[in-house]
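On clarity, I found the account of how folds are encoded harder to follow than it need be. Since the whole study asks how a given chain folds, the encoding of that fold should be made plain. For illustration, here is how one protein appears when written out as sequence plus structure tokens:

:::
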Amino acid sequence: MIKKLLVTAATMTMLASSVTPSLAMGPAGMGMPLKNQFTYIQVAQPTLAPFGFVSYCVKNQDDCKPTEGPRSVEWSHAKMRELRKINYQINQAIQPINDDDGNDTWQANVSKGDCEDFVLTKRKELISRGWPAAALHIAVAYTPDNQGHAVLIVRTSNGDLVLDNRTNAINPWNNTDLKWVMIQSSENPLFWNQIHLG
């Protein structure tokens, strides 16, 4: 899992506490179109990217470059169907298995893996289908049993949606059982920020 990254992030948070919080410019809200239900994910201090992600980027530099293009996807029923299909197919295709302690390896397109491997595989698949990379963000959180966990956030015109290997449902970011920790920057996937919950 991602235990070490959360300890490192906590350390960096203390060091970076003088940075002023700002708002991420992506809306967050319900996955279905409900008027006036949109909120914004607030990001706080910059923090270190997870070490496993940095190692992944060293080997897969094309997956970690800043990209041009839309930072959100226009919500539609067709887009939701595609998201549900991809989420379901990859959740079924990868056998969940945790990395050994001290060996937090992030990989895409694997037959066995943990949460980060699901996230990277979903991200690559969506990009291959034409979804803009700048609208797809990896986020780190805690599950209710305090396990470090990674999910894919898809920024849409109707809010930030969560693709999670623990469920085939796609939920708004603010309607999950997760305790949010950090998310990739929309400007550069190598830059990460804490998630400010106010």
